Amino acid sequence: MSATRGSIYRAFSRGVFYLLVGLLLVYTIFPFYWAINTSLTPASQLFGEKIQYWPANATLENYQTVFIQRPFARNLLNSLVVAGLTVLFSLLIGSMSAYALGRFRFSAKRFVLYAVLAVSMFPQIAVLPGLFTLVREPIFGFKMYNTPWALIFSYLIFTLPFTIWVLTSFVREIPAELEEAALVDGATTGQTLRYVLLPVMAPGLVTTGLLAFINAWNEYLFALTFTLTDKARTVPVAVTSFGGASAYESPWTVIMAASVIVTVPLIVLVLLFQNRIVAGLTAGAVKG
Amino acid sequence: MGTNKARQARAPGSLLARRERTAWLLLLPAILVILLVAAYPLYRTIYFSLTDASYLRPGEEKFIGLENYVFLLQDATWWTAVRNTVVFSVTSVLLELLLGLGVALILNSQFRARGLVRAAILIPWAIPTVVSSQMWSWMYQDVLGVVNDIFLRLHLISERVGWLAASGTGILNLILKNLNIISEPVPWLPDISVTMASIIAVDVWKTTPFVALLLLAGLQSIPDDIYEAARVDGAGALRQFFRITLPLLKPAILITLIFRTLDALRVFDVIQVMKSTDIATISMSVYDRQLLVEFNKLGYGSAVAVAIFLVISVFTVIYITSSRVRFD
Asked: How confident is residue B113, by pLDDT bands cut at 50, 70 and 90?
């Protein structure tokens, strides 16, 4: 008898467990589903009597509007250039530093690592006034303001320390014999880094690059402040500048179409690389 | 003899000295970049904070000492922003920790579709904050919004709520009223405005996955045989949770707590997008950007930036010293 009671209890707790899992799934996915649903709804039908939980007359007109009436393609290109170049520079400079910090012994190493960690926690707002005046001043006759360079330059403040920090933890895991063998064979430091360490670091570079890319792609404060026109505007700023005169007049179907376009590549990346991302996120506390 | 060896090793031209030189060469580009994008702008911010600089009169700033900081102490908007930021940070971080712990416990147990759930919870994290703020702003609309529709259908509320407009009511009063526990708002209840609560809900939705993943890593580092031993000793699930899981998870919880607080204190995106510079929800960062960009107050805005920097620095120091980071 106690056996049946035990199995009923087990079945019950199993049921509660799966109910919780179901609720969790709905909670996390529903807002994204809702954005898709709205983006497929004809703008004229949005103000109907009842809220439609399923797009009855699905249309792609909102997606057309995003690209035809808005310079959204340009915004996407800007974002791609800014995030791509930021990641490239961060990985180049970061892997050199990570090699030094993960492999070399020297007296000030602890201090350098503390400094890197401290800068990675830096509130961006603290440098905003200084950076704002800097990007508006001509440097060698070139003003960064309202060009992608203002963003690439300023984004290094959060991508570089982060890249150094995570890559250093990857370099530490590489067996020392690899590097020693190269040095014994007479390879220079540059050759050792280029031909021995970088290939082994590839998975680390992918993870770090991906996380840095996502952070740069999503950045808003600098993007909003250092750009003025669609020539340099990135996607997060564009998504917030669709506005109508009031909340009621906002073109929500178009905003949601743009939101879906921005989000889909990120979701694909995250799902493809989820194991690496989870590893990278938990390898030392990392900015989300 | 040991010192002799050490002296030899440090002598110029020795292998160790050469290695050290190479290390600095490798670090040089990073040091230059950090000096240029972090140290120099920070220095300029501190300098401007001691002047009456304005973008309208570039290069004509006068040194005014600590006047900006004296003004800061009496600036009512600044203190409102501090209060809002603290309310936002404390509430969102606590909720994220509680929910995140629950999610981490679910993910730590064996069940079908576990991979699916882990992938799904990464979605809110991957969506840019600006975009999720727009999605939720739309869902919060009072007439066309889906939140009111769902809550009305489930009889959780009796009439439509202006989630982003009702600055007068508090969320606790709203819930208690809809549960028919109270009929009139209770003014002395420690409460958070419905609008602020709605913004916090967006942050909780977005960040709980991240917290859950950090805590999950902590959970997975607890060896199974401890639970095995507890089961043999006849400890139930609850007892195991409070006697084993929670104590052993404490370091992970602490790190997550401080790390998230650091992040929450500089909140900008979600508040800027959903409510702009509305005084009811303005945060320290939103206020500072308004001063700098909209009001052209470079000097005073810099002082506010320095103040935010100092507040967050305190937490950074706590974080670095308590996190037992690995240096070798």
From this structure: confident
Please indicate, yes or no, if residue A237 is contained in any of the structural domains: yes
Residue A209 sits in the same domain as residue A72: yes
Same domain for A41 and A126: no
- Cβ of residue B40 closer than 8 Å to a chain A Cβ: yes
User: Cβ–Cβ of A20/B302 closer than 8 Å?
Assistant: no
Residue B121 vs residue A4, higher pLDDT: B121
The total domain count for chain A is 2
CB contacts < 8 A, A to B, total 279
| Record: contact B217-A134, CB cut-off 8 A | no
User: Quick check: B177 pLDDT over 50?
Assistant: yes
pLDDT at B166: 66
pLDDT band at A248 (very low <50, low <70, confident <90, very high): low
Q: Across the interface, do A224 and B103 touch by the CB < 8 Å criterion?
A: no
pLDDT (tens digit, 9 = 90+) per residue, A104-122? Answer: 888 888 889 888 888 888 8
- The CATH number linked to A79 is 1.10.3720.10
Nearest CA in chain B to A227: B293
pLDDT at A3: 61
The average pLDDT across B65-78 equals 96
> Could you tell me if B203 and B87 are in contact, meaning their C-beta atoms sit under 8 angstroms apart?
no
Q: Is residue A266 part of a domain?
A: yes
Domains and CATH numbers, chain B: 1-46 (no CATH), 70-145+196-322 (1.10.3720.10)
A24 and A102 housed in the same domain: no
A113 to chain B: closest CA residue = B327
Mean pLDDT of B273-279: 92
Q: Which of A32, A34, A189 sits opposite B127 (nearest CB)?
A: A32
Do the chains contact at B44 and A128, CB–CB below 8 Å?
no
B contacts of A284 (beta carbons < 8 Å): 325-326
| Interchain CB distance below 8 Å, A282 and B127 | no
Q: Provide the ipTM.
A: 0.89
Same domain, yes or no, for A48 and A89?
no
User: Is B221 part of the contact surface with chain A (CB cutoff 8 Å)?
Assistant: no
Residue A116 belongs to a domain:
yes
Q: Is residue A287 assigned to a domain?
A: no
Task: Determine the structural domain holding residue A124 and report its residue range.
Answer: 67-282
Q: How far is A272 from chain B (nearest CA, A)?
A: 10
pLDDT at residue B28 tops 80: yes
Regarding whether A20 and A134 lie in a shared domain, the answer is no
